[in-house]
């Protein structure tokens, strides 16, 4: 019977193609060298109706007893009065909460398996100092990483995978990946999604020990990249001055200089955040600040400059880079009107993004702002809001059904869909639990 | 009342002994306090079921009474805790505050004496920087006592000490009177990596074990040497020379110093139990114990606690088999389950870590109540450290180490509002004058209020 229903659903799917994908707000930076997810096809597929749920679409007001309709890989309908097609699989979510899938950032999921002891599974960093901005994470991405299922069963459906270290101020190109467990190119939502660079203490550490040389090297590379773009022919016939970096690095910076790809700068100290803003204005670059422990201290400037900030909410231990760190950082930034996303910067425990967001609320952020900061805002910041981040018709069906309040520690996801596919609840950890649930 | 007097007497005796024999004895003095009664609270005592709408009386630094109602003296300060929860102070049995202080710069890397695989002669108390601002952050998370351990780079990392989380100018002023010393031992990857990479022993797990056994054998011989000398009349001219490293190990053999053993893997914990039997010492707790769930029967049979994280896993191979049910499974087996931090972040939110472990347990069909979970944060770590006679539960006669929470402590939205140590209000979220700031934070960001 169930098979028959599914077949019926497929027929319905074929006869009613989902809405056309909305155009992205900004043209994605697509470069010939980078593999992309295949062009969105109108794919038939099973129809799933999540009914009677409290729906938090993020893009609009909460719907108290509504339905999310998934067809194939897309969201077909969201609302209080959605007609469920005959044959749809129905998930009765009475008393449950439904949100879009969450997006974490600053993790190395898929490019590192075990950071400190399994040599050969770490691709997030390189000691090859000839590589800088050309480093790209998707060339290493492993969809079979055990970290992916452990993370997605907790409601995180996409991550911004960032390179960790190339020993240079420009660390390389990050990508938004889905957590289906698919390989490249299927798992790629957007690549490159950002160029990552280091400033502040970590930037100084790779630029001879001073913040001044960090900025000097960044300026040099950006100027070289500009010069190179205007003189490719001369460069290729060796009739141009020597550049500080290789052709590959200079090519990789072109989308940044054209404003097609944001520059994600890791920095924490207030003065460093302002230095990054100055540099971005100098080169007319789209800047995203990551870390931002002292961002609240310069919130008005960041808001005025329309610079988004990605913060780890649970940051309050003072360092000389972050003397002003406070758990109220997200709330203060949010209230100052800064575009704010939350992130864990923790590959193995990206799943604790919920705890980060819950604490941001406990320290003054509104619930609505906190949910937006883990869904739609990061989707916008990383240029994938045309596909994910909210429960809107035509978007990818990244949908999570929560047993209760998504921010609370004693609740959890009961169903996780990525691109319309329900993710299995099993992980390597649940397998270990099964094996040791009783001891002989 | 009798229990109360006895415990005060015992504590006084312990302090006296501590101060007579130890050149680094605690100088902590409980402050004079006004009697305080906390009423209308949901109380988790860590010594029984939840008390709804109950009261606690704090008097002379002790818990004087706890129950549905208590008789308070007329001059008592009354705190109406309607809608709030009250628990014993949180105890972290694995902390490096003060020895890996903030800011985390090279000048403050005082936790790992990585110059020899056996540094049993060092003591964390001589690295603790009382001005570490992280003590204040931990207090705002309800932490009233913690065991400060050396790091895990050595087979024998050195002595650990238990401190009260009180502002102090000296480490001695924080030391918990009467608390036994710990000896930190470490299994697995860390000592192998540190010394193997220098081309010296140990470079393997079997090298680790050989290193432990050699040291314990020396300790046995050292103890016998002193015994022979005492049995032979304690002739001053023939007095053996003092060996500080072996003295610590003998303290363990004599039962005065507790083994706190960093150990992730089930098989390695089992080996450590074998070694403890070979040389006749007791392991108080396995720390991190990411695979405790695999040998929970063995831990129960040997009466060894497991000090665990709620969900840390996978950051190195020996942590790869970490599962979220570790704590719940040890608890269910009747073991001594402890939520520890090993982290200046985690120590601020141990209640949240316990909440995550509760959820994980529920998912595996293990029913856990707040009254269960509070034991992981209070009385169980107190047992592992050896301060459970003094603190760790709300029972008449125990130290008045108490936290008033804004609500259920196992909710992400709940925060510690008031924190008492020995009946003294040392933190109040609603009173900036009761939010101590270490010297380090004074004037460092002019005009900025964090």
* Helicity of chain B, as a percent range: 25-40%
Structural class based on helices, strands and sheet pairing of chain A: alpha/beta
What is the CATH class name of the largest domain in chain A? Alpha Beta
Say what oligomer this is: heterodimer
The SSE string of chain A, one letter per element, is HEEEEEEHEEEHHHHHEHEHEHEHHHEEEH
Architecture overview:
The complex is a heterodimer of chains A (440) and B (450). With 440 residues, chain A is an alpha/beta fold. Chain A has 2 domains: 1-100 and 389-423, Urease, subunit C, domain 1 (Roll), CATH 2.30.40; 102-386, Metal-dependent hydrolases (TIM Barrel), CATH 3.20.20.140. Helices cover 27% and strands 21% of the residues of chain A. Chain A is built from 14 helices and 16 strands. In chain A, the strands form 2 sheets. In chain A, strands 1, 2, 3, 4, 5, 14, 15 and 16 form an 8-stranded mixed beta sheet that branches. An 8-stranded mixed beta sheet of chain A has the order 6-7-8-9-10-11-12-13. The longest helix of chain A has 20 residues, at 211-230. The radius of gyration of chain A is 22 Å and the shape is globular. Chain B has 450 residues and is of the alpha/beta class. Chain B has one domain (2-441): Alpha-Beta Barrel (TIM Barrel), CATH 3.20.20. Chain B is 28% helix and 20% strand. In chain B, strands 1, 2, 3, 4, 5, 14, 15 and 16 form an 8-stranded mixed beta sheet that branches. In chain B, strands 6-7-8-9-10-11-12-13 form an 8-stranded mixed beta sheet, with helices on both faces. In chain B, α4 packs parallel to α6. The N and C termini of chain B lie far apart (45 Å). Classes of the chains: A alpha/beta (440), B alpha/beta (450). Chains A and B meet through α11 and α14 of A and α9 of B.
């Amino acid at each position: 019977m169930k098979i028959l229903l599914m077949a019926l659903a497929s027929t319905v799917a074929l006869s009613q193609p989902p809405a056309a994908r909305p155009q992205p707000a900004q043209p994605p930076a697509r470069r010939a060298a980078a593999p992309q997810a295949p062009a969105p096809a109108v794919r038939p597929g099973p129809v799933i109706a999540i009914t009677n749920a409290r729906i938090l679409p993020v893009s609009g007001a909460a719907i108290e007893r509504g339905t999310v309709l998934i067809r194939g890989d897309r969201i077909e309908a969201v609302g209080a009065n959605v007609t469920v097609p005959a044959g749809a699989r129905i998930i009765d979510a009475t008393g449950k909460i439904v949100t879009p899938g969450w997006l974490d950032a600053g993790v190395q999921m898929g490019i590192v398996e075990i950071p400190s002891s399994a040599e050969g599974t770490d691709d997030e960093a390189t000691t090859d100092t000839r590589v800088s901005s050309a480093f790209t994470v998707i060339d290493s991405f492993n969809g079979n990483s055990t970290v992916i299922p452990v993370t997605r069963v907790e409601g995180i459906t996409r991550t911004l995978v960032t390179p960790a270290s190339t020993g240079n101020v420009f660390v390389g190109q990050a990508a938004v990946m889905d957590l289906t467990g698919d390989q490249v190119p299927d798992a790629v939502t957007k690549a490159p999604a950002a160029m990552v660079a280091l400033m502040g203490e970590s930037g100084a550490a790779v630029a001879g020990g001073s913040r001044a040389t960090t900025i000097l090297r960044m300026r040099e590379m950006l100027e070289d990249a500009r010069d190179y773009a205007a003189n490719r022919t001369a460069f290729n016939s060796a009739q141009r001055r020597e550049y500080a970096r290789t052709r590959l690095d200079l090519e990789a910076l072109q989308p940044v200089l054209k404003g097609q790809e944001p520059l994600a700068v890791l920095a924490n100290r207030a003065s460093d955040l302002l230095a990054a803003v100055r540099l971005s204005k100098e080169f007319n670059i789209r800047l995203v600040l990551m870390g931002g422990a002292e961002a609240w201290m310069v919130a008005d400037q960041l808001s005025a400059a329309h610079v988004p900030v990605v913060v780890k909410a649970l940051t309050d231990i003072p360092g000389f880079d972050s003397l002003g760190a406070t758990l109220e950082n997200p709330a203060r930034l949010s209230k100052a009107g800064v575009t704010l996303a939350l992130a864990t910067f923790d590959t193995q425990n990206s799943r604790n993004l919920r705890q980060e967001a819950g604490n941001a609320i406990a320290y003054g952020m509104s619930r609505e702002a906190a949910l937006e900061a883990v869904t739609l805002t990061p989707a916008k910041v990383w240029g994938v809001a045309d596909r994910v981040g909210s429960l809107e018709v035509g978007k990818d069906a990244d949908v999570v059904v929560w047993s209760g309040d998504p921010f609370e520690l004693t609740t959890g996801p009961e169903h996780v869909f990525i691109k319309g596919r329900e993710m299995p609840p099993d992980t390597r950890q649940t397998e270990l639990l099964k094996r040791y649930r009783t001891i002989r | 009342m009798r229990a109360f007097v006895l415990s005060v007497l015992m504590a006084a005796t312990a302090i006296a002994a501590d101060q007579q024999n130890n050149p680094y004895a605690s100088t902590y003095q409980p402050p004079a306090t006004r009697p305080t009664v906390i009423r209308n609270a949901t109380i988790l005592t860590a010594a029984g079921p939840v008390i709804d709408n109950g009261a606690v009386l704090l008097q002379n630094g002790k818990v004087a009474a706890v129950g549905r109602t208590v008789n308070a003296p007329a001059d008592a300060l009354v705190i109406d805790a309607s809608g709030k929860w009250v628990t014993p102070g949180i105890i972290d049995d694995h902390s490096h505050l003060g020895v890996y202080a903030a800011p985390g710069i090279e000048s403050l890397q005082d936790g790992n004496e990585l110059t020899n695989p056996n540094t049993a002669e060092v003591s964390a108390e001589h690295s603790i920087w009382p001005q570490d601002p992280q003590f204040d952050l931990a207090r705002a998370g309800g932490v009233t006592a913690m065991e400060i351990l050396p790091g895990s780079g050595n087979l024998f990392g050195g002595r650990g000490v238990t401190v009260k989380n009180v502002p102090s100018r000296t480490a001695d002023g924080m030391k918990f009177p009467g608390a036994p010393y710990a000896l930190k031992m470490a299994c697995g990857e860390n000592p192998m990596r540190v010394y193997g990479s220098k081309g010296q022993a140990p470079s393997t797990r079997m090298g680790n074990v050989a290193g432990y056994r050699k040291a314990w054998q020396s300790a046995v011989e050292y103890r016998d040497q002193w015994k022979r000398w005492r049995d032979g009349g304690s002739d001053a001219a023939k007095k053996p020379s003092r060996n500080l490293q072996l003295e610590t190990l003998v303290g363990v053999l004599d039962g005065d110093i507790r083994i706190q053993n960093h150990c992730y893997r089930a098989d390695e914990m089992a080996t450590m139990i074998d070694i403890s039997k070979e040389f006749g010492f007791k392991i108080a707790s396995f720390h991190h114990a990411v695979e405790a769930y695999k040998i929970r029967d063995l831990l129960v049979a040997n009466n060894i606690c497991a000090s665990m994280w709620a969900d840390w896993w996978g950051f190195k191979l020996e942590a790869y088999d970490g599962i979220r049910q570790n704590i719940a499974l040890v608890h269910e087996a009747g073991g001594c389950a402890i939520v520890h931090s090993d982290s200046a972040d985690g120590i601020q939110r141990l209640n949240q870590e316990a909440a995550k472990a509760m959820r994980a347990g529920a998912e595996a069909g293990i029913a856990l109540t707040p009254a269960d979970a509070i034991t992981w944060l209070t009385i169980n770590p107190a047992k592992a450290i050896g301060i459970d006679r003094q603190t760790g539960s709300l029972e008449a006669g125990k130290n008045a180490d108490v936290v008033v929470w804004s609500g259920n402590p196992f909710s992400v939205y709940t925060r510690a509002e008031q924190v008492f140590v020995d009946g003294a209000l040392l933190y109040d979220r609603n009173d900036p004058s009761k939010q101590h700031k270490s010297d380090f934070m004074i004037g460092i960001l002019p005009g900025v209020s964090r």
